[in-house]
Specification:
The protein is mainly alpha-helical. The protein has two domains: 66 residues, Winged helix-like DNA-binding domain superfamily/Winged helix DNA-binding domain (Arc Repressor Mutant, subunit A), CATH 1.10.10; 42 residues, no CATH class. Helix content is 59%, strand content 6%. The chain contains five helices and two strands, in the order αααββαα. The longest helix is centred in the last third of the chain and has 27 residues. It is elongated. The model has no long low-confidence stretch (mean pLDDT 90).
Length: 126
């Protein structure tokens, strides 16, 4: 986890988002233990209650399970659920903005995808 915090959002929320990113990226998989509240608090010089609040959000969302005396663990299917939620959010909130920008700039979506696939294939000589 990145120890830099921004001031635009509460730290517990940023911590929650970082754990979500770790799940989405496959760093944490189903059944994996989250770093302990005590370790995260010590490593990033945070109040343990701040760490606990971030972790509790993950529990409330059904992504993480608290096992008394053992710690917190990623629930089975958490990554699949997160991917589904992220895709829905992207399609409902971000994609319409992208489409509007493409239209406003008079860009051709097919041409954009063609350029991107050429880059991926190594056709870009930059």
């Amino acid at each position: 986890m990145d120890p830099k915090w921004n001031e635009d959002q509460p730290i517990y929320r940023q911590l929650r988002d970082r754990v979500v990113a770790m799940i989405l990226e496959g760093v944490l998989g189903d059944g994996d233990a989250l770093p302990s509240v005590r370790n995260v608090a010590a490593e990033y010089r945070l109040n343990p209650l701040t760490v606990l609040k971030g972790y509790q959000e993950l529990v409330d969302e059904g992504l993480v399970e608290k096992k008394r005396g053992r710690g917190m663990f990623v629930n089975e299917g958490a990554r699949v659920q997160l991917l589904k939620d992220e895709r829905t959010r992207f399609l409902e909130k971000e994609w319409p903005v992208v489409v509007a920008t493409i239209e406003r700039l008079g860009l051709d979506a097919a041409e954009l995808f063609k350029e991107e696939s050429e880059k991926d294939a190594g056709g870009d000589d930059e």
